[in-house]
Amino acid sequence: MPKESSPFINNTDNDKGNLYDGKNMALFEEEMDSNPMVSSLLNKLANYTNLTQGVKEHEEADDDEGPAKTKKPVKPLPCTSDSYCLIIIMTKTMLTAISMSAIATNGVVPAGGSYYMISRSLGPEFGGAVGLCFYLGTTFAGSMYILGTIEILLTYIVPSAAIFKAEKKEDEAEALLNNMRVYGTCCLTLMSLVVFVGVKYVNKLALVFLACVILSILAIYAGVIKTAFEPFFVCQIICLLGNRTLQNHNFDQCLKTMEVDNVTVTTKLWSLFCDSPDLNATCNEYFTLNNVTVIQGIPGLTSGVIRDNIWGDYGPNGMLVENKHQASEPAADTSQDIYMPYVANDITTFFTLLVGIYFPSVTGIMAGSNRSGDLRDAQKSIPIGTIMAIATTTFIYISSVILFGACIEGVVLRDKFGDSVKGNLVIGILAWPSPWVIVIGSFFSCCGAGLQSLTGAPRLLQAIARDGIVPFLQVFGHGKANGEPTWALLLTGGICEIGILIASLDAVAPILSMFFLMCYLFVNLACALQTLLRTPNWRPRFKFYHWALSFLGASLCLSLMFISSWYYALVAMLIAGCIYKYIEYRGAEKEWGDGINGLSLNAARYALIRLEEAPPHTKNWRPQMLLLLNLDSDHAVKHPRLLSFCTQLKAGKGLTIVGSVLEGTYMTKEAEVKKAEQNIKSSMTTERTKGFCHVVASSNLRDGFSHLIQTAGLGGMKHNTVLMAWPGTWKQSNDPVSWKNFIETVRETTAAHQALLVAKNVDSFPTNTDRLGQGTIDVWWVVHDGGLLMLLPFLLRQHKVWRKCKMRIFTVANMDDNSIQMKKDLQMFLYHLRLDAEVEVVEMHDSDISAFTYEKTLVMEQRSQMLKQMQLSRTEREREIQSITDSSRSSIRRNNQTGASGSESGPSRELEDTQEDEVAQLIHDRNTASHAALNDKADAGPDRVHMTWTKDKFLTERNRNRAEANMGVRDIFNMKPNQSNVRRMHTAVKLNEVVVNKSQGAHLVLLNMPGPPKNRGGDENYMEFLEVLLEGLNRVLLVRGGGREVITIYS
């Protein structure tokens, strides 16, 4: 089967003789073996037989696929929903604490806590985005804690302190919200003043609050123990109608009727279900069919109620809370149940809701890290304090859940507002010695959490502002002389006030949990990334970590985000993404040695190694560009439109290396090289060229560009295409170096199997802001070069500058070709390539060489010969230097011999000094001749002979050379043009005529570039041929393929 590296597979040795016959395409004849005429293989291209990709690759893919491996389904272990919730949340919390401990002990952690850890590990973009989200979450959490404080105050402690009181029952909720707004604002002001005074006062108050919380917890355990020793201790009774739980607000006794003075009378409960207190009143059907019963709300630790409470009992909104073990007679009509005093679900309950409700109780693990700047030894305090706190709270939470399930009746546990126990706190009823211990403990717990939020959030914002990654936040980096974040505290108080004015944060609370989870997620990722990269600076003192634990913690955080609320998770990610992009484009550039850079380096290394294993597939081939620029005397870019064209061709995809060469050594040109690189980078930014810049210093331009072509890129990420400008002033320049460098560059790209693009009149090419109207991009496909000519217009039309241009493809038919069949084959080939283009076949019949062509060739050769004769022979100049050097040395030697007698006169001594200086200068000039001159002398043949010249030999040789030169000038006017040059000039003239005739008005003309002659003596003629070929055309792109197929018909 054919291979990619051989683009013309079906060409056999027997076919080569038929690829070219005639003089119309003589300009391309030297490369006909590798680049055949399109007309000779167009039929094969249209019928797939000359393409390199296809059957084999698909067959190999099929062979590589082994039998499908079947996986056995994995069944999850049985687990109750409540314990599962506890396990995943507490596991996530502990894993996050382990990751945070590892990062916190890997160096000094100043103010900023979690933000500092993430930003220094994952970069300023991730750190800023997650840090700001975490700041908003902490700030709104502070407002939630303050609202919780006020709710406990007005509901359980001093209900009479309410300013707004509801006249109707349905207005009670609105009145409570208004009271919370007023008292919440006052509480926020008081807490802000405490934080403003200083963090030491917050720490002192924290001890008081902590003592109250500990007493509350001990009271709960004491109450649980008491129920074990007093099993018949009646904490509270629950009234059931059938199996339905009743709201115990408007009746005192759980009875339908009772005996008073031997008279049966109805109770208040009767009035709730019947239309009158009379015994013959019409009552609710369910009330009539079922009896009322009384059960203990807290039966005690030894009651065995845990067997009923261990399984979940979720239900929809409005579902009645029922005791499944009680007998019940269902009623036919249930439409009136919603108006009866039953305890019912106010929301739909499910497992993920339980996770969302429980999660805020573990969001305080960052409280210590947020105040890292105030800790004496953050590396020691953060790991010990955080892990011990999590271990303690984990024990308390799990034991509390188990003990509550073992002591409290299930219907009471599912009674959200405690309606079945007259609206009291169920935990307060359980606690010993008094419910007030729980009330006071809850009050101070909310106060302490609010103070912690108001203390940590401003310091977090101050750390972000001082880093300068978000420009408009820099004002919040200032504070008091002792470093207290005054302005940040003011902003935090304002955001908290917004939350308090909303009063009901039920809709906002989920997104706050998302912000916390996102912070924990990135803390775990930061630890895992640093561990896997094994950077030399990653040396945490905390040793009990592993990257697998960090990844598990990150996975749990991400899972919890979507388990709790998938749409709020997406909103949180969108907010973080917007902040990330803002910091990326507007934020200050910071280099903190973060893990993302290390990850990028490792990923780049891995990708480069993979790329080097095999050449890219034809389907993945795109121009990886090496752009060769010329600089002016100020080291500015001469042709910035070349950068624009590269941008339009690449559209930000693939590799772009912009290179240039300065003559000299790097030791003497270091400053100029850096200046040139800065100028090129500035031009690349202006022209929106994404890529790399590389400027080298070399003894001459030819060698410098050769080095770039050979060494630019790294591993598999190397260029495959060279783009350069046409040397438009090569005729006007007396120095042939420019066009010789150009031709050598063409030869070296061909030898390196790289494509070459040469843009003529590049200064007239459109800029990135131009929008070309209706026009055409004309492709003149003369010889097959791997399909690059057809791929380039497609890539250009992806850019908005060329989007409206149509593509036209012209190919040339000779005398023996069937032009009609060629057009059909070309249309079929383009159809399979999925390219939309107009097709035209231009016939170029064999014709006699015109007198104009003959005369033009003669003038070209005469001009070339005259330029050679007008130049002073370098060999003659060196011989002259050698003669003067020998003469001077002989003179010096004679003078030295007579110097002992002291007979020299003053003028003769001055003359000898002058001669010595001239000789030294001549020797210096010869020794510092450019490397290009040495190469030219290497080609000089027998003339390049070193010998010592006598004066007579020198004069004889110079007269002989001059005589030969005079003979050469006389021979110029008698010379006849070389027949090969005439045929090549004929091709250039004829092809130029048809191209100008068809494509003079095109926006861009793409044309096969003939290769330079194998005999270097015809280099100047080659430039003349190209000049004639391009005459009369404005924007031209000469294209040479790299020796492989770059476009395929297969998907």
Automatic annotation (TrEMBL):
GO terms for cellular component: plasma membrane; synapse. The chain crosses the membrane at residues 84-109, 129-159, 180-199, 205-224, 347-367, 387-413, 425-451, 511-532, 544-561. One of its GO terms (molecular function) is potassium:chloride symporter activity. Residues 1-20, 870-916 are annotated as: Disordered. Residues 640-758, 765-894, 975-1051 form the SLC12A transporter C-terminal domain. Its main location: membrane. Residues 882-898 have a biased composition (Low complexity). It is a multi-pass membrane protein. One of its GO terms (biological process) is chemical synaptic transmission. It is found in: Cell membrane. Pfam families: AA_permease, SLC12. Residues 86-224, 345-626 form the Amino acid permease/ SLC12A domain. Belongs to the SLC12A transporter family. K/Cl co-transporter subfamily. NCBIfam families: 2a30 (TIGR00930). This is Solute carrier family 12 member 7b. It comes from Hucho hucho.
